[in-house]
Amino acid sequence: MLDLVRVMLRFSKENVDRPITSQVILEQGTPVNILSAHMNQQGGEILVDIEAAHADRVIKAFRSRDVTVDVRKLVEKDDNKCIDCGVCISLCPMDALAFAEDYTVVLDEEKCNGITCGLCVDACTQRAIRLIG
Amino acid sequence: MESSGVQVAYKEVDVVTTGTFGAMCSSGAIINLGHADPPIKIQNAWLNDVPVPHPGAAVDLYIGATIGSETRSFEYGGGHVIEDLIGGKEVELRATGPGTDCYPRTRIETTLTKDDLNQFYLLNFRNGYQRYSCATNGRDETIYTYMGKLLPRYRNATYSGAGELNPLTNDPDYETIGLGTRIFLGGGQGYVIGEGTQHNPKSRLGTISVRGDAKRMSPEFIRGASFTNYGTSLYVGIGIPIPLLNEGVANKVAIRDEEIVTDITDYGIPRRDRGAIRQTNYKELKSGKIDINGRDVKVTSISSLKKAHKITETLKSWIEGASFYLSQHVEKLPTDTVFKPMRQTEETTFVESIVHEAVTCSEDERIEEVAQRLVKRSVNHIVVVDEEGKLSGIVTSWDITKSIANGKKTLKDIIVRNVHTASLNEPLETASRTLAQHNISALPVVNSERKVLGIVTSEDISRLLGGVRSG
Which parts of B287-365 fold into alpha helices (H)? Predict the structure, then answer.
């Protein structure tokens, strides 16, 4: 599997009406996979995966068009708080949360949609899951 | 244990350990504070802002797991106080009393740890359900329940209990588990003190009540819990050894997940008897997917299978290491208890009794026509239906006023599509709750195919309540 970097692109009122994502894809000649998008005339956010090998120049291309790019962890699970019940698993649309063989609840941060989803957060009775950003 | 190996197991194995770790809302702790100087007869008390009912004499208190803090009600509650005390943390006590000749003090504030308490007993009057129903939600909106967060339209499901590891499931006729059975409780040791409340043996929904010394328990097996929009609870770990006294008992502990059948239940139905969508078993539930109406639905436990395994292993090592001794019960759990519903002296009113005909329109009508109909029929809501009479939206007189202000010309632009609805057999109380929660004033009443049967409005409900009061 390709090594991917997950980033959040934030658009403002000023640049939301321009086809920036398509421009960057064409200009950089590398695919950008859109995982989720929430936009209106006031601005919005797109969560994307970029191939790690091209991530630096793709991020620069977005930033040169005044798009705010956040590269960071989207979610955190505190394993000391977690009781491995699994209530979060049935809620996760990305299969980012799953049972290991010994019924430990494991989080695959790479698969998580972060703040555009957050379905699991208020379901955790131990408040062990935190979204970042 | 496989059934084929029952005879071998009976010869080779003396004891099978069972265990479960789940949210057990009927949990609490009895504490005795000792006397202050001058002493106080406590009337009202709080631990970390959680009201602590006062069940007995001057300084005995009961910490109920589901009672929320007065400052952070659904986030921190009695369950957390119990966990904090077991974990060695200091908790703040605040108490008031009437002041009497023998107990002159009227207020006290202090901090306490478990070492400062005389007695600190976990007391749990219902847990260890033999099996439990699997919860899902057929409504159009997410609901938050004691079975966790349930997404709309059967998009997920949850279940509770450890299936074949569950204590009572392995002793379904209560041959070894009874009053006086020594058990693993919260990481320490405790006892079964009788049938649990709502014990329902005939439906294979038996329960037990238990007590144990909380000072010896561990936060690894006792955890406070916050269920969003429901409240607080306590996760409790229970393990029970089952001695293989005879081949019959050995046969019963060989039970497997696929033999433990339970209902899939729609928690979106706001009634006591929700019926069953269909039956399932713990093997299917543990697979992570169940079929609901022909679709794969993700299902997970709200109790912890990992901890249940840990409990059975810990109990096993205690028995092997001679730090836990099996006890014989002194009284059997009853097998004939009946679980009755509440006797209600007031009848429940249902939507059916106040529903009335809805004024309707179709999507392609002009705003003017619709406005005229609202005036003519003197109503504020018009329900938009398709050619089959199915709900496609709602328009209020306020929507029409706004359309004039904003210059919107066609009905399609102003129809509200995301409509909250009610059903005929829904209690009026839940319909009123929907109105209040969403700050709306009417609910189209629909059947399961979303065909419009009528409408209820907040005015109808006020009129009914007003009528009840004056009558």
Answer: 305-320
Catalytic residues of B: 102
**Contact between B393 and B399 (Cβ < 8 Å):** no
pLDDT of residue B288: 95
Min Cα distance A105 → chain B (Å) is 9
Encoded tokens for A9: 């692109």
CATH top-level class of A75-131: alpha beta
Q: Report residue A69 CA to chain centroid gap.
A: 12
Q: How far apart are CA B54 and CA B67, in angstroms?
A: 13
Closest Cβ opposite residue B300 in set A83, A86, A126: A86
Between B460 and B96, name the one with better pLDDT: B96
Q: Is the model's pTM score more than 0.80?
A: yes
Local structure of residue B412 (DSSP, 8 states): G
Of A79, A80, A82, A87, which to mutate for an interface test with B (greatest number of B Cβ within 10 Å)? A87
Report the alpha-carbon distance of residue B95 to residue B111 in Å, rounded. 11
Question: Is A104 in the B-facing interface, judged by CB distances under 8 Å?
Answer: yes
Could you give the 3-state DSSP secondary structure of residue B113?
A: coil
Confidence of residue B4 (pLDDT cuts 50, 70, 90): low
Work out the minimum CA distance from A127 to partner chain B, whole angstroms: 8
Domains contained in chain B, CATH given: 1-131+143-260+268-274+300-341 (no CATH), 351-470 (3.10.580.10)
Residue with tokens 């910490």: B63
B290 touches A at CB < 8 Å: no
The nearest CA of chain B is from the CA of A25 a distance in Å of 35
